[in-house]
Write a structure and sequence with these properties.
The protein is α/β, with parallel strands linked by helices. The protein has one domain: HUPs (Rossmann fold, 3-Layer(aba) Sandwich). Helices cover about 40% and strands about 20% of the residues. It contains 6 helices and 5 strands, in the order E-H-E-H-E-H-E-H-E-H-H. The chain has a 5-stranded parallel β-sheet with strand order 3-2-1-4-5, with helices on both faces. Strand 1, helix 1 and strand 2 form a beta-alpha-beta unit. The N and C termini lie far apart (about 50 Å).
Length: about 170
Amino acid sequence: MTDRRVGVYAGTFDPITNGHMDIITRAAAHMVDKLIVAVARNPGKGPVFSVEERVAMVETELATNEIVKVIDVDVEPFESLLTDFAESRGASMLIRGLRAVSDFEYEFQMASMNSYLKPNIETAFLMASDRNQFISSRLVKEICFLDGEINQFVSPRVATLLMAKKP
């Protein structure tokens, strides 16, 4: 089937949060026929987890999600330009999540640049659901490392992995 809509949802996923899973689930169920969750190497962000650990973490979360289990979703690491990665995988759409107005300015600029680089790849934005708008991986790590409760922001599996990384 040559008319399959392939989308890419990229991020660092350090760690993957309930907000990420919400975007993945909604994008895979309603927007594309195949979704590739692209895990950025991005050493400049100083991730707590290695790229291999993050890929495995995302794969585990997807494998335990009842909706995503029946949809065509792959997880792959990448370190190139996102548009080059997407094009190499036959994707015609980049999926981006927006939490707040503050995200929009950066995401709009990135979408415009991506469109300039690869005009054949569209960017689609999904608003975070109200229960996930405030969740960010950075804040989840900070709360965890300061002995706060994170179970409402990540799965129990991810919480256990993150607590094991506490300095």
